[in-house]
Design goal:
Layout lengths: L1 H35 L3 H5 L8 H6 L7 H9 L1
Length: 75
């Protein structure tokens, strides 16, 4: 009996998550991709490295991140 109740609760949670979170998220993502002109073919392309990796390697200057800036002001 308690297993049956647990299963029903999990199924209810799963269905609610799908209806209220997953489907709206997918709909919004599809709309965003359409607005950006991203096709299914584009999504099938595998990118093996980060597109900015070459730029960051060429840039020899260190740009401090937020927590480093805060520390430098305290010194």
């Amino acid at each position: 009996m308690s297993n049956e109740i647990a299963v029903r609760i999990i199924q209810h949670f799963h269905n609610a998550f799908k209806k209220h979170v997953w489907i709206p998220r997918c709909t919004e993502l599809n709309t965003c991709e359409a607005n950006l002109g991203i096709s299914k073919k584009d999504k099938m392309i595998t990118v093996r490295r980060h597109p900015f990796s070459d730029i960051t390697q060429q840039n020899s200057q260190h740009v401090p991140v937020a927590h480093e800036k805060k520390e430098s002001y305290e010194e």
